[in-house]
Amino acid sequence: MYTYRPVDTFKDEDVHILDREERWFERGVKEAIYVKRKRPSLNRGGDVTWKVKANDRPYHQLPEFKKKVFLCIKKSKYSGNAIKTYKYNVITFLPLNLYEQFKRVANIYFLALLILQIIPEISTLPWYTTLIPLVIVLGITAIKDLVDDLARHRMDNEINNRKCEVLLNGRFQEAKWREIQVGDVVRLKKNDFIPADLLLLSSSNPNSLCYVETAELDGETNLKFRMGLRVTDERLQEDHQLADFNALIECEEPNNRLDKFTGMMLWDRERYPLELDNMLLRGCKIRNTDWCHGLVIFAGGDTKIMKNGGKTRFKRTKIDELMNYMVYTIFALLILVSAGLAIGHTYWYEAIGTKAWYLFDGKTQTPGYRGFLSFWGYIIVLNTMVPISLYVSVEVIRLGQSKFINWDLQMYFAEKDTPAKARTTTLNEQLGQIQYVFSDKTGTLTQNIMQFKKCTIAGRSYGSDPFYSKIQPVDWSWNRYADKKFQFMDHSLVALVRSKKDKDAMEFFKLLSLCHTVMVEHKDGDLIYQAASPDEGALVTAARNFGYVFLSRTQDTMTIREMDQEMTYEMLALLDFNSDRKRMSIILKFPDGRIRLYCKGADTVIYERLSPNSKHKETTQTALDIFANETLRTLCLCYKDISAEEFEAWSRRHKEAQVTMNDREAALDAVYEQIENNLMLIGATAIEDKLQDGVPETIAKLAKADIKIWVLTGDKKETAENIGYSCSLLTDDMEIHYGEDVNEKLTRRQASRRDDPQAYRRGKKKTAEPFFPGSNKNALIITGGWLIDFVDMACECEAVICCRVTPKQKANVVSLVKKYKKAVTLSIGDGANDVNMIKTADIGVGISGQEGMQAVMSSDYAFAQFRYLQRLLLVHGRWSYIRMCKFLRFFFFKNFAFTLVHFWYSFFSGYSSQITFEDWFITLYNLAYSSLPVLLVGLLDQDVNDRLSLKFPKLYIPGQQGTLFNYKNFFISLFHGIFVSLIIFFIPYGAFLQTMGQDGEAPSDYQSFAVVAASSLIFIVNLQISLDTSYWTFVNCFAVLGSIAIYFGVMFDIHSAGIHVIFPSVFTFTGVSSNALRQPYLWLTIILTVGISLLPVICIQFLSKTIWPSVGDKKYEMELKEDDDKKKPSAFQRGRRSRRSAYAFSHAQGYADLIASGRSFRRRPQAHGGPQESIREIPRRELTENDRRYEV
């Protein structure tokens, strides 16, 4: 398991000491090193080029804000707010689509053939034999592209035509999103989507506080807060004030940094700094705020969400690339064969043609020139080795496979009425070759729903084991404030708390109700908690249900209901959480004057700060290990009593640190460290981060299919590692390599690279010695970046988790694996922060439904639950790959067998580029006579059904290895075609040498020979595809018999006298078929030809299935082996001690600054309640080091 951490979490020995704000992971992992980056300064010349003036549209059209787009044409650098994802319009569709289609080499090839066929001197086939298929292919592809682009037009129009209120001419008017411009002031209401990147000016909440849901950006459903500047809050509440607003905003250029914004507002000769907390980003939704006003800073394509989308890449499958190379091979083969036959014609005409008077055509052309014309003639005759119908057939098969995905009811999520959707028709077979899956965590693997499951209080654990489901949940009817959705299975803890006899349990839940940064809203008599993270919300909700209800807070007080009594505590200090501290604390003054610090955090940091006299450390640690083994997220709870003198001295140092200008955050951390010591342990909580249904089973199935899953998340290491265990990505039998061990291995590899550079220049990507010798499973936690060696090391591991990665870094990790491992990758995510990763991977999958549609709009496939991924890959992907490979192998075979008959015929026709078959047979061979059976195999064939495909994931492995279609298979098809073409030509040829019919006539003319050879070919290719079909349906049977029937029906029609009379120059084989096929001798010839062609194939298939069975043929043997594996004991050991920290908390800072500033409160309510009765403390002066505890 590889865990990526930001530089600001590294120790000094890992990274050169730099200021936190000067370190970042440049270009993700492109160079895989940490580099220094200075914060942009708004005072340096040239850094600030983005200027926005409020309520002044003409200002943004000034010449200084113009940019050149073409020659002397200029336009404003400020984008309009309309977005465009479509490719064509009415004018550009036809030329642009034809241009794109003719970028495909095969289409240019067929266009060149058409031109050659128009030239009379070299034309050996009518021009319509190429024109008709070419027009059909271009037309079908154009229609498909048009349908796809119309869907993009509809999506764009739906978004661009959304309505909002814009301040125009002194009053707010309803306008469409597409009409919004930079510098406009807009008004948004509750539940509105934000149309552009806005500077928050004012809102209905106190101090212009505004809550936003960022699900479209990061997939998280917990609310974030944004806040306007105090000056705009005080002076921009009314419409006329907003109309007079004329500030100038100077800020950074548009970029994709979702976590950064730097700017300055100049208003009335005063300058006000701007940061990300003042911004409302496009794609978010307004929540719990009746209205707000914002100034448009970035619009349309300049917004951060659009910048994060990354460049749309044209995706092609590996089979597409391989097919192109094979087409080049066939083309080279065609040129070589044509050149050889042209040379043969030159020598033949010089030796024989010039001497045969009956061959004289009245032309005085030299043998060399005739050979030159023969070369182009053979290019036309043999062009069917690369039939144009191949590409239209591939498109039809892909379209059908996409429809099967859309129609799959087992991938339909009824709860949200969300079916699976194949948003592309060009990548289906690539789904059967995936080697690496890159997954987001929040909203993709998890539901982002936290549940309080267990706890340990004073050494005793509570909460039922999750394996016992017969226990009834606790009835909360005794508590009118209880959240009815909250479930807890242990009735003993509820009884203990309600009895009020256990001071430890009471103190435990009092801490949970007081030590947090949750905001509360009273709505319709109910309490609604707004938490910085779902973890905090779950803990406060648990305290609420157990009778300790958080009611309200002001800037310096907190009010809770302790069972039946309302109590108010004075908040003296709030020591907020961050990723370095891994804990948060609150210092409260009790109603009786006592001062107490409550603290909660990770066991790794809490245990270091416990008093030597603290009890229950060993039993609590044992409980933490058990919770961690059950993949629960844990927090330790503790307290400390503080004397008034100690607090006063600390408070002075705290205030000094708050106003320091140099490294304020480090100064505050140092002051916090001075008070957070000698803590007394109370217990620990255990929260379940609820996974989506079926995630562990899906990951286990994909792992058996040899698909490696990497989790890329913005969460911190401990949270991501915990989820890794929860979803079975990490298991207890894995050996995890940490820190110095990893650095030592990488350093050794780098040294080896330096000592022997020639070895690596010769193309060796890594040394023969693996990083982790042995057969054990490995997981990896690494600091620092080492480029190629990092990739090699990570790919040796069973599991990889990258933490604290930005959207750009996610894409770079995917790109790195694609580049250095040449692997087929799939990315799956649900938010806008996953869009870049989704576009970078070979296959992009979007999770649709709860967390917005940004990822879905950029994806290739979309569905509602992660668990559907196993069906998409192991069933649809595998079937699509097998079907496409079988289709291509047979298609190449049947066209080689068809085309090379002309080659053998050339030896008996003076290499004169004459055709063996009739013109119309050549035209209809791939369109009507042999297309339907192979097309149905490409659509419907399956070696095993979907149940067995899921039961035996190892059946997926041949697709990853590319064993079903490669150059080996191509040459097998080529030699098979050569063999069949030999049989088709020479057996009838031998039969026609000395033949006498029943009527005394010899049916040995060229036309009869053509009919017999063509009939033999039709029987062979249709019976051959029957032998290759694994899954028979009525449709397949009908297609095979129907193709043969169509051939004979059309042949007798076009050989009839009636059609010859109408078109005498087009239909020249008058009466041939009826004359030839009434001869039993020729039917015996056809049967002999078909039998000799198919007999070797039948023998080889028999030997293959008995002596060299494929993975699919071994499925029953695998079933027996799997049954044996089930009897083996599990590697998981419940009693095993784990020292991993399973703590979980918000990976972003909480609301401490907001609470401490008082900006979120309208007024301070009067304190409620009397002195505390539930807890009696020993006075501070009586406490000693040996007796620091709380008691009744």
TrEMBL record:
Residues 745-769, 1162-1192 are annotated as: Disordered. Its cofactor is Mg(2+). Keywords: ATP-binding, Magnesium, Membrane, Metal-binding, Nucleotide-binding, Translocase, Transmembrane, Transmembrane helix. It catalyses: ATP + H2O + phospholipidSide 1 = ADP + phosphate + phospholipidSide 2. The keyword ATP-binding applies. The chain crosses the membrane at residues 102-119, 125-147, 325-349, 369-394, 887-908, 920-940, 970-994, 1006-1025, 1037-1063, 1083-1104. It is an enzyme of class 7 (translocase). It holds the Pfam family PhoLip_ATPase_N. Coiled coil: none annotated. It is a multi-pass membrane protein. The active site is at residue 440. Belongs to the cation transport ATPase (P-type) (TC 3.A.3) family. Type IV subfamily. This is Phospholipid-transporting ATPase. It comes from Oreochromis niloticus. The gene is ATP8B1.
